[in-house]
Specification:
Blueprint: E1 2-5, H1 15-20, E2 28-30, E3 33-38, E4 41-48, E5 51-55, H2 59-65, H3 72-87, H4 96-105, H5 115-125, H6 130-144, H7 158-162, H8 166-169, H9 178-190, H10 194-199, H11 203-210, H12 218-227, H13 239-248, H14 264-275, H15 279-288, H16 299-304
Antiparallel strand pairs: 1-5, 2-3, 3-4, 4-5
Helix pairs in contact: 4-15, 5-6, 5-12, 11-12, 14-15
The chain binds a DNA duplex (13 and 12 nucleotides) through α5, α6, α12 and α13.
DNA sequence: ATCCAGGTACCCA
DNA sequence: TGGGTACATGGA
């Protein structure tokens, strides 16, 4: 059992929020303690203020996995600066919507997840809620992952999944996503270097490559870019973020989507312009605060009654 | 019971 | 290029 003391430039850090916010689905909580698997290692970690107590990984890997070297206070400052530039007010502009979300989410850290696990996880995520996704992934690991002792399992490799028939993968509550899982696993078997190649691509090329995988569209690709490749300017747009952004920032509506629903890129591009190079972090703060925000999902219908 | 959830593929104009 | 729809599952 080891300890790690967070320095002032590594705070705020909220372990619970970080592991519960829907970026990773393999950690289990028992009281204050979290148990998970990182790179086939059984890991435990708990937090008491600025002290992390952990086991199963070394300090360098802990820092790397949780991106502890990233200064979150600076990130929030940079987001504020971008908002100010966008708003044309470099002195006193204050975005209370963002500040409220950041107050809720500031201890959240985007972790450095393994691309393969992240890819499979978010293929499983589509059109599902977080408890369902978690259950699905734990079934997949239990059935096809390497046993690591006391009901713990590694994440199955591409080969582990590629050799399964679609109907077998369906027994993991994956539904129609089963064909995407085997298809993506087979794609990786045919292109064994693709995931490391993507790490060196531009964002545009990386996204294009990811979307060649069966079952990977813009949203899943963006989640992998943000949560595994740590491209912090990327903004995955799910139904929550769509509702939040269109409700809180009506200026997202432009000529193209004034009388209809904004497209995926309308929302993602607005966020990138508005929140800047850490838009993905801003997005995570809003996602973390999604339950607290009182939002109407009917804003589009309300507007569409009005003449141009 | 109904609606909805960290969406995508496919079809059609 | 953009809009409509089927798709499986389980939580609230």
């Amino acid at each position: 059992m080891k300890t790690y003391r967070l320095g002032t430039d590594q705070l705020p850090f909220d372990l619970d929020l970080t592991l519960e916010c829907g970026q990773v689905f393999r950690w289990q909580r028992t009281g204050n303690q979290w148990n998970g698997i990182v790179a086939e290692n059984v890991v435990m970690i708990s937090q008491d203020g600025e002290i992390l107590t952990y086991d199963g990984m070394n300090e360098a890997d802990l820092v790397r996995y949780f991106n502890l070297d990233l200064n979150v206070q600076e990130i929030i400052s940079k987001i504020r600066a971008s908002i100010a530039v966008y708003s044309g007010d470099t002195e006193s502009h204050n975005d209370l919507q963002f500040e409220a979300a950041a107050a809720t989410g500031s201890g959240l850290r985007i972790i450095r997840q393994e691309p393969w696990e992240c890819l499979i996880s978010f293929i499983c995520s589509q059109n599902s809620n977080i408890p369902t996704i978690t259950k699905r992934i734990s079934l997949i690991c239990e059935r096809y992952g390497r046993p690591l002792g006391k009901k713990r399992f590694g994440f199955p490799s591409p080969a582990d999944l590629a050799e399964r028939e679609e109907m077998e993968l369906r027994t993991c509550s994956t539904g129609y996503r089963a064909s995407y899982l085997s298809g993506t696993a087979q794609y990786i078997i045919r292109n064994p270097d693709i995931l490391s190649h993507i790490a060196n691509c531009s964002i545009e090329d990386a996204k294009r490559e990811l979307m060649k995988f069966p079952g990977v569209g813009p949203k899943v690709a963006d989640c992998v870019l943000l949560f595994a490749y740590n491209r912090y300017e990327v903004v995955p747009v799910d139904v929550w973020i769509r509702t939040i952004i269109t409700s809180l920032y009506p200026e997202v509506r432009n000529r193209r989507c004034n009388r209809k629903e904004c497209s995926y890129n309308d929302i993602a591009n607005f966020c990138r312009e508005y929140f800047g190079s850490f838009a993905g972090y801003a997005q995570q703060y809003f996602f973390a605060a999604r339950q607290d925000l009182s939002l109407s999902k009917d804003h589009i219908d309300e507007r569409s009654d009005q003449p141009l």
